[in-house]
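Much of the work behind modern protein science is quiet bookkeeping, done one molecule at a time. Below is the pair of lines this work produces for a single protein:

***
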Amino acid sequence: MPESVNNSLSATRDRMVAKQLHDRGITSPAVLSAMGRVPRERFVPIEFLAESYADRALPIDCRQTISQPYIVAIMTQALELSGRESVLEIGTGSGYQTAILAELAAKVVSVERHAELSAEAGRVLSAIGYKNIQLIVGDGTLGWPAEAPYDRIIVTAAAAQLPQALFDQLREGGILVIPLGNAESQSLVAIGKVSGQPQATELSGCRFVPLVGANEPPGDDC
């Protein structure tokens, strides 16, 4: 990519952090710094390069999306990462949220049901240089018990209700962030595990693609 394009995108990234995130209530210095470091343009389709830092979700392959930067930031902030945590991500997608998590956590295990998306995300994440990410192709609704329990869990697709299998894999005192609702109405929720029980805090309204098990018919999405 020409240096002039890189410089322009870097400046646009800085404005995104200032205007879309900081000015709208993202207060974590660590999250703001990570969002300022990760090159979102590496994760969007080439035809959307000029919109890499637009204040909206963008389409990617398999009829999925790369989330709006603000939503990535608010979900990440709600995880309250200190750098020591193991994180389970459900829905690798483009790999952008995965990269943000990798900047802030000790280890990220990311599950994606579309092998094509997982492979492309892996290529980009490896090229950037991340070493603390494990990518899994599988049914995200089941989590990944082999590495459980997790300090944090983030789900980047909407479920009608909290998936019990995921909550079971959350460590006591951990935090799970998930969009809950249907196609018409969704809320982003942070759920703490306190004495084995969920304690939920609503963060914001949102709109995500639905959480789908890998064994369900994929339709024509990939």
